[in-house]
Amino acid sequence: MILNYGYLRVTYNRVFNIMHRSTFLCLDCIRSFSILDSPKVRCNDLDGVIKKIKQLVLEGKDNLQFITDFDRTMTKSYSETSFGILEHHPNFPESVKIETGKLVKKYLPIEVDPKFTVEEKIPLMVEWWEASEECLKGLVLDYANFEAAVKSANMPFREDCDRMLKILNQAGIPTLIFSAGIGDVIQCAVKLHSFDYANVHIVSNFLKFNGDVVDGFKGPMIHIFNKNEHAIEGTAYFKDVKYRKNVILMGDSLGDADMAEGVENAGVILKIGFLSSKDLTLFLPQYLSKYDIVLLEDETMDIPLFLIDSIVKQNLP
């Protein structure tokens, strides 16, 4: 019998590496990480979160896609929204600002009111977005001044958002920015901050123009409760993520938690929710029912960055 020692050595090394990694990623090791012990981190099912993290790391970056909301998820909790930033355009009429402000006062309390079911909220959110679209129609908003509007707005990104997006790009992890806001503003902000990497795809409400005159939204309207991957079916991006079954998802609203709906052959979906409400007694239980990890008053990307970095390197410190 002739033994191929070279083959045996390679096989042994592969088996050893797998066993070493599995041992290294044991639940006790993950549970001991101080970053998960932060008072800002809340989990409804810690054991379930630990198992998801372990699986995400073991299956690596090539099985991962990243889905995130934009307003007050990528940006800080006190940031202006993309709708609000549009109003910084030098040609935006004061009279329209008053009208859109009335809509916010009417519909925003309904969006966040726990006494309404999602089914009850959806038609009201459609009313809100349709009314907002009507307010925008006919406005003369030259595209050249969108950059000025973004620059003049209060729109800081969460700490280390730039580093997180850079790692996602370097690792070739498809990144979907999914927003019910104004896509033109988001696209401009992403470019201004040099986040417009080849792996980044934006799905949002882009304005339709006739010259410089706004003629409504392009394509189907996206509101807070219909954001999911069904909206990108048939696109080149959808084909890119077809075989990436694992997802890290980030959002700041209850509707954002469903953005991964429509992922084909879904594997592990880890949902991270940012909660900045002062009334934690009211909102925390709802967020914990929708998100795996809830971050309280956290203006950083520490947890998402930790997870992505661990997956890319396929280890946990």
Automatic annotation (TrEMBL):
Catalytic activity: a ribonucleoside 5'-phosphate + H2O = a ribonucleoside + phosphate
Pfam families according to UniProt: UMPH-1
Keyword Nucleotidyltransferase: no
GO-annotated molecular function: 5'-nucleotidase activity; magnesium ion binding; nucleotide binding
Coiled coil: none
A cellular component term, taken from the record's GO annotations: cytoplasm
InterPro entries for the chain: HAD-like_sf, HAD_sf, Pyrimidine_nucleotidase_eu
Family statement: Belongs to the pyrimidine 5'-nucleotidase family.
Protein name, UniProt field: 5'-nucleotidase
Organism from which the protein derives: Laodelphax striatellus (Small brown planthopper)
